[in-house]
Amino acid sequence: MGDVLDLDLEMIDGSTTNLRTLAAGGRVLVVNVASACGLTRQYSDLQRLHEANDDLTVVGLPCNQFAGQEPGTHEEICAFTEERYGVTFPLSAKVDVNGTARHPIYSVLTAVSDAEGHSGDVRWNFEKFLIDNDGAITRFKPAISPKDVL
Questions:
Q1: Minimum mean pLDDT among 47-51, 58-62, 90-94, 133-137: which range?
Q2: pLDDT value at 67 more than 70
Q3: d(CA 29, CA 127)
Q4: Per-residue pLDDT for 71 more than 80?
Q5: 78 carries an active-site annotation
Q6: Which positions ≥6 away from 19 have C-beta within 8 Å?
Q7: Which is the catalytic residue, given 7, 37, 78, 93?
Q8: Which of 22, 97, 101, 107 is the least crowded, having the fewest Cβ atoms under 10 Å away?
Q9: Beta strands 27-33 and 128-131, pairing class
Q10: pLDDT (tens digit per residue) in 85-126
């Protein structure tokens, strides 16, 4: 599953990179994010995790597939996350996490089961996937606090 780290990812600024480059040899926490969700407050804890752990990079992938809760443009998403939550962790361009247009990263991630045995489609905004240095993936339900993934 280490290949997921090498899949292309378009960033919110239009550049292209991959999770391996973003993680710089450390772990990466991939989270589908949204600005108008009841779980949006998780941005604060995600930012704290990103700042407090030298070996962890949080990567937010905005997604508008759940009740249209990420309707903004890339510029609006950046402004919102910066001004409201002080987000400095990398954000991708908007992606689909489910369906026929699912981003290839999520094709790999959704094959992994969480602690309750759920695999397959992402259930809601802020579902989390921790990818360790060895490529092992751990999946967390959206309501799990970012503080509880390490």
A1: 133-137
A2: yes
A3: 10
A4: yes
A5: no
A6: 4, 5, 6, 7, 9, 28, 30, 59, 105, 131
A7: 37
A8: 101
A9: antiparallel
A10: 999 999 999 999 999 999 999 999 999 999 999 999 999 999
The DSSP-derived string for 1-53 is: -GGGGGSEEEBTTS-EEEHHHHHTTSEEEEEEE-SSSTTTTHHHHHHHHHHH-
Residue whose entry in the numeric block shows the structure tokens 């954000």: 91
Closest CA to 85 of 124, 58, 53: 58
Angle between helices 42-52 and 74-85 (to 10 degrees): 80
SS3 127: coil
